Amino acid sequence: MFEARLIQGSILKKILDAIKDLVTDASWDCSPNGMSLQAMDTSHVSLVSVSLNSDGFDKYRCDRNLTLGMNLISLSKIIKCAANDDTIIIKAGDGGDKITLLFEAQNESEVAEYEIKLMNLDSEYLGIPDTTYNVTIKMPSNKFQRICRDLSQIGDAVTISCAKDGVRFGAAGDLGSGSIRLAQTATSDKPEDSVTISMQEALCQSFALKYLNHFAKATPLSAQVTLSMSPDVPLGEPLLFNVCVVEYNISDNDDENPSTIGFIRYYLAPKIDD
Amino acid sequence: TPLQKTLYTFFLKS
What we know:
heterodimer, A: mainly beta
């Protein structure tokens, strides 16, 4: 028996909006610790990992580990039927071939019930090494979204150059070139507006904007985004780990005491000069 | 044009 109740159903809507255009079929792994999902896009260039802790739910019961494989487009269509302020309840029986979604209106006078068919997915599961990244940039998520969108007008790839005092996002294409430079901010009253750079060495790497624009769909989940990267190592060195990790924390919207209840992490392989 | 790497280069298939 599995049952998870989320008063802020809008969080699930935002999560689906953030992943459904990147991966179509994926499995939710449900355990007593929470719900998680990991899937690659069809070209195997990016991977999305979502985690929601059990204590982020208002009620959570998971008697045994379950894998709920489903089409995310279908799930998204059904989740869209919930109002933003609805409570969403996910229920699954043991060994069933479907899950039930209940949407409770705030005044509890209306309950909508939907069922979605489950799929048996033979998904490829990649082991993500526990790695330390040399460069971490924290910045406002809406600024990151804007930069990726604007630079897509110029070229297919963004080159991220990071030094201690700031980070530069640049793109070049047939029409010309463009760049945006962000300086690290002094400690401010508004942490959500701050740009923080933590680094061991300077870095310059290129990534496909098509994917970063997909990742930026998670912007409504979090005011800040964290980019983690490591620099290239010369040829002949042991295998480098220079994927870019774009991370959004998932918080509950408790204004007085917000707490992190999970995350979305996107991993993106770099573009490398031949 | 730069080559697009895939994640198989970085992550272990498990």
